[in-house]
């Protein structure tokens, strides 16, 4: 009588059962790998989204570096003003040209819009009237061409406190070499809407 050889543990080993066992293990292992891969992709996407949100929050909450004005040389800020309530056109800064209404101010990157408003009012007495509106635009070169673009960075009103008063050149990503364009509107006229923005 023929008998199958037994393992020390007493179980009977056959080629078919071993083959099935290997196929089953391989299938389970494949399922596990697919689940892990899917989970990894999901985690990776969530991590990228989280990093993106964190980066945007860091940009918004990025603390300004304190500037010691006694030890830091001021920068020359080239300011261009209008009394019509409207900003200069971008093409007025093209090909090395600039508008004629230039005002040069020596200041620092931590200068606030309120501080700049006071400096402008020293030069233009008519702008000291209560209710005069000051709209600030940064004029910067377009990296994709030879044109300039304007970015709205805030506004102030003479004789009144506003939410933009404490905004600084540094906080608005002003760079040395940029210009500042200020549209001044008399108190008896409402300032025009301005939707031109600088992309970041």
From TrEMBL:
Q: Which Pfam families match?
A: SAP18
Q: Which residues cross the membrane?
A: none
One cellular component GO annotation, for this chain's record? nucleus
| InterPro entries membership | SAP18 (IPR010516), SAP18_sf (IPR042534)
Keyword vocabulary terms for this entry: Repressor, Transcription, Transcription regulation
A Gene Ontology molecular-function term? Answer: transcription corepressor activity
Protein origin, superkingdom: Eukaryota
- Subunit comment: Found in a mRNA splicing-dependent exon junction complex (EJC). Component of the heterotrimeric ASAP (apoptosis- and splicing-associated protein) and PSAP complexes consisting of RNPS1, SAP18 and either ACIN1 or PNN, respectively; the ASAP and PSAP complexes probably are formed mutually exclusive. For the ASAP complex, the association of SAP18 seems to require a preformed RNPS1:ACIN1 complex. Forms a complex with SIN3A and HDAC1. Interacts with SUFU.
Instruction: Give the family, as the similarity comment puts it.
Output: Belongs to the SAP18 family.
Its name, as the record gives it, is Histone deacetylase complex subunit SAP18
The protein's organism comes out as Takifugu flavidus (sansaifugu)
């Amino acid at each position: 009588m023929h008998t199958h050889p037994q393992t020390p543990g007493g179980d009977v080993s056959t080629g078919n059962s071993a083959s099935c066992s290997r196929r089953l293990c391989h299938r389970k292992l494949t399922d596990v790998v697919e689940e892990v891969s899917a989970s990894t992709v999901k985690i990776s996407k969530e991590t990228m989204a989280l990093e993106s949100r964190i980066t945007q929050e860091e940009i918004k909450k990025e603390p300004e570096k304190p500037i010691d004005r006694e030890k830091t040389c001021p920068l020359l800020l080239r300011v261009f003003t209008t009394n019509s309530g409207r900003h200069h056109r971008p093409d007025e800064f093209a090909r090395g040209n600039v508008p004629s209404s230039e005002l040069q101010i020596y200041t620092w990157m931590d200068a606030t819009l309120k501080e700049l408003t006071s400096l402008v009012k020293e030069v233009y007495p008519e702008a000291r009237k209560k209710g005069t509106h000051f709209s600030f635009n940064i004029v910067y070169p377009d990296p994709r061409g030879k044109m300039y673009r304007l970015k709205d960075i805030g506004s102030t009103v003479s004789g009144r406190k506003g939410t933009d008063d404490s905004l600084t050149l540094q906080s608005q990503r002003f760079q040395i070499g940029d210009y500042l364009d200020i549209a001044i509107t008399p108190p008896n006229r409402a300032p025009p809407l301005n939707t031109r923005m600088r992309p970041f």
